[in-house]
Amino acid sequence: MSAAINIAVVGLGFGEAFVPIYQAHPSVGRIALVDVSTERLARVGEMYGVESRYTSYEDMLADSTWDAVHILAPVSFHANYTLAALRAGKHVACAVPMATDLADIDEIIEAQAASGKQYMMMETSTFAREFRAVQNLLQDGSLGDLTLYKGVHIQNLDGYPPYWLGFPPMQYITHALSPALRLTGTSVKDVVAYGSGRLDEDQTGTSQNPYPTEVGLFRLDGHDLVPEVTMSFFKVARPYIEGFSVYGSKASVEWPPVEKTTPLVYELQDLDPNQADTGLRGRRSTTVELAVDDGTELLPEPLRRFVDTYEVLPANGDAPVWKSAEHGGSHPHLVHEFISAVVEGCVPTVGPVTAAEWTAPGICAHESAMNDGERVVVPQYRGRSGR
């Protein structure tokens, strides 16, 4: 394979956002678009000047032009599309989650090892500017010991495509849980979870899941932190929120209640020796905004503009379009991590084993919720091929 990677972007609803980033990457050659909608293929293809277009995923896989695929199709396709691509000799980047079934996770790990190709789950939260800033605070000792973690993903899916009806919230856990696992470098040992509320009849779909919300406690392997995660897709009245708060013995960071505003840092102050005379008790904390880190120095120069709002000059001559950098500016970092892993032949940060460790706890949490909070042991994946 040449140094220039030819990649197919599969699913242009979410996937459109990645097209200009791949086009700008210095190690990417040609790009193909794959989508069942001919209208969407035409619109995105004309905007970005991409001539290679497929309505059939299988036809694209059969074309030896393409070295890699980035799967951004609906969740139900993730496992089968990943397996088909690996067995066709393609490198795979895949949106979250890796799979919704433990057997599929095992099969993907085995298929990746047999293929010799790279696999990366494109988890946005651990490549976002907010996570990078928190990670820096932990590494320089500012947070102290991690003692409490709360992950949350609340998103009302009324009006979304029908395949989301009744989707078990915990099976989409990676955005809310993975920051805790990356910060601690651990995996989940076991989980206890409960469902909260009941879906209306027209929201249940075919999954047999009755819960609009699921809440879980995750016990880690080798770390005292016990992450608490709340996942909700229906019947909760609040704007979208997807984030995490992490608390330490010296300082803490809380996710803001309103998306796209800055998290707050609380720093514990020394106990005032004269405080008892005032009638007050306990140690006080100062509050400042988190200094976020876009990490542009980690990116090739052509990708740096994609960490913030950027301009697209349509190839068809239409007026310029401004696009927002969603998910904390993570998209160019994800692209660069995946392409670098392919070019250098190294396991990406969220390789198959790490992806399994971040995905399986949610599958097990839903099992726990469906069994009235029964403790469920999570499979362990370390020692298998791929990080």
TrEMBL record:
InterPro entries: Gfo/Idh/MocA-like_OxRdtase_N (IPR000683), Gfo/Idh/MocA_oxidrdct_glycsds (IPR050463), NAD(P)-bd_dom_sf (IPR036291). This is Predicted dehydrogenase. Keywords: Oxidoreductase. It comes from Ruania alba. The keyword Cell inner membrane does not apply. Residues 5-121 form the Gfo/Idh/MocA-like oxidoreductase N-terminal domain. One of its GO terms (molecular function) is oxidoreductase activity. Transmembrane segments: none annotated. PANTHER family: BCDNA.GH03377. The keyword Oxidoreductase applies. It comes from the Bacteria.
